[in-house]
Amino acid sequence: MCTVVVIATPSTELLIGFNRDELHSRLPALLPSQVLTSTGKYLAPTDQDAGGSWIGLTDQHLAVALLNCFCEAEPPVAPVRSRGTLVRALLALGTLAAALSELRILANTLQLKHYPPFDLVLAAPDAGGPRIFLARWNGARLIVRRRRAPLVHASSAWRADKVLAERRAALHRYLRQHSPQDRNSDSLLTLFANHHSGVAQRPPCIHGPWAHTVSHTALVVAAGQGSVRYAAGSPCQCQLGVPLSVA
After folding, report:
1. Total of domains in the chain
2. pTM of model > 0.90
3. Containing domain of residue 39, as a range?
């Protein structure tokens, strides 16, 4: 399971919070670091198992967040590629338009068939509010839909519809309880640190026998500046680190 939330405020053009849930068997991730590319640079943490990433922000303010898709799907075609490497490839393109174009090219040329199913949230600030797209690859078809803020999305292999409905209710409670001026990465962390859920044993922050919430990442674009904050561990047990700037 993973959970992502995308909102905007009068002072923040783009605010994304992301809980990463993983099996206990996976290696700890490396902290976010800067990567130079032909289009600029981006910040992203590193998955030590495969070398990719699940979330990142570019200096042109493209945000990419990956969630596993537990949907009926065809198995990937060999050689199977890590979904995290796709995240890095899209971040290296710099902009939302370029990333969306690349996704469609990879689908049309059947290159996506090498990846297991996934959901991708791609977002960037815009004068009328953030532009947000949810892209799903089910092993056979790429479906890209435009979304609006506030957005919440979650992946779950168990009662996915009910889990997502609970996440939506939790986001609405957060929005009611926090004025627009109080919506920031620190207050949003309280939503992700929650252990109470209407879905049995599936809260945003999990501590299960096989899997647990291993990190929380906040992506922020405000006053034309982008930054990444990272908490290496369960959000109920640690605080977000200092903002790392991606100019």
Report:
1. 1
2. yes
3. 2-246
